[in-house]
Amino acid sequence: MKFREPVNVLLRNARVLDPSLERDFFSDLLILEGRIREIGPELNLGADLLSQVQSLDLQGKWVLPGLFDMHVHLREPGEEYKETIESGTRAAAAGGFAAVACMPNTKPVNDSAAVTTYILQRAREQGSCFVFPVGAISRGLLGQDLAELGELREAGAVAVTDDGRPVMNSLLMRRALEYASAFDLPVISHAEDLHLAHDGVMNEGPVSTMLGLRGIPRAAEEIMVARDLLLAEMTHGQIHIAHVSTAGSVRLIREAKARGIHVTAETAPHYFTLTDEALMTFDTVFKVNPPLRRPEDVGAIKEGLADGTIDAIATDHAPHSVLEKDTELDLAANGMIGLESAVPLVLGLVREGVLTPLQAAAKMSLNPARILGLPFGTLNPGTVAHLTVIDPELRYILDCNAFQSKSRNCPFHGRQVQGQVLLTIVDGCMAFTRMSP
User: Fold this and answer.
1) In this structure, are strands 23-32 and 9-18 parallel, antiparallel, or unpaired?
2) Is 316 tagged catalytic?
3) Is the pLDDT of residue 333 over 80?
4) Among 328, 300, 321, 74, CA closest to 201
5) Half-sphere exposure of residue 82, counting CA atoms within 13 Å on the CB side?
6) What is the CATH topology of the domain spanning 9-63+382-433?
7) Do 292 and 278 form a contact (C-beta atoms < 8 A)?
8) What is 66-372's CATH number?
9) How confident is residue 124, by pLDDT bands cut at 50, 70 and 90?
10) Tens digit of pLDDT for each residue in 130-161?
11) Active-site hit among 228, 297, 316, 391
């Protein structure tokens, strides 16, 4: 990563949220040479040490472990006009993320050690945060033959998925779960029955009927969630359900967890913030896959987050240029950018009482790291500092034209929000700041 020197900083009067210790408390936090050295109230450093550190009075602002987005699209290699590893990780750092896991639907597809190695090398050279590649389940994302899962793991892949397309072949998905287990690789499911989805452009329901648009029924997601849960139960594999969007999916995952199936799940901010009524404008910025659903689905997603059925919040950051979005709804690409708008939207759940601050911190840092088996999500003294400072009270207007991302397909542009990232420290170094010395 293209970081400078490790930081020496004293964060005073912080509200520290450490989900790894289940602690929410007010404290000072000292970072020396990029490592968390001490956490405690009213730290007394002495004149000599105090002269060597930058002191920041946070006045109750939040300090969390560096956020971890386990589902992003960085578009490199192959579609650098939409996003690059450099611009995407700048956007991540600005959004408070110390690490991201990038999906394999690049050009070429990340189905080999060569592409995984390329991504890691580019991240080392250009990245503003850690990048963990996710490899493909099938060669070329074609759903026909398994990719070399062991080779991908050895090269640095942290999970496998055909995200962007489902694995329609149940036997292939079974084999993926079996072989991935041998390499301790989670399998991430893009749950979609293509026959039921059938070129739909939005959720099937009253709104799609009124607009005369082809709809995608909830069952297109739920049938594949049910299949993959059954396959995980049969194989004892580790399944992770991506971008959960329906009440039925939440119910199925909740029941599977109660039966002891090794399943985790994520949702994205747009699935607990927006409904399919946003498509009344015919604005393609709201076209996403799975589609925005009904208010009752939004309510179920919130319930799933509150009771732990949904483990993580990921952005599914999907940058597109005007070439893909400034066209008819039927032809427009699916996807929204989300790295720089996620924090205030999640804080909306805290203000609603859906999540506590500590639960929100866990779903955006510790839990994604644990799902992928990576050492993030803690503020333990002695560890290298990966942390995010947030002002939960600051109100402002989201302006996608000021984003670090190369793309502008943000459905929350112009929205008044509350809560902003002020500082992101990654690997002990300053990755992003809005704070004055």
Assistant:
1) antiparallel
2) yes
3) yes
4) 328
5) 23
6) Urease, subunit C; domain 1 (2.30.40)
7) yes
8) 3.20.20.140
9) very high
10) 999 999 999 999 999 999 999 999 999 999 99
11) 316
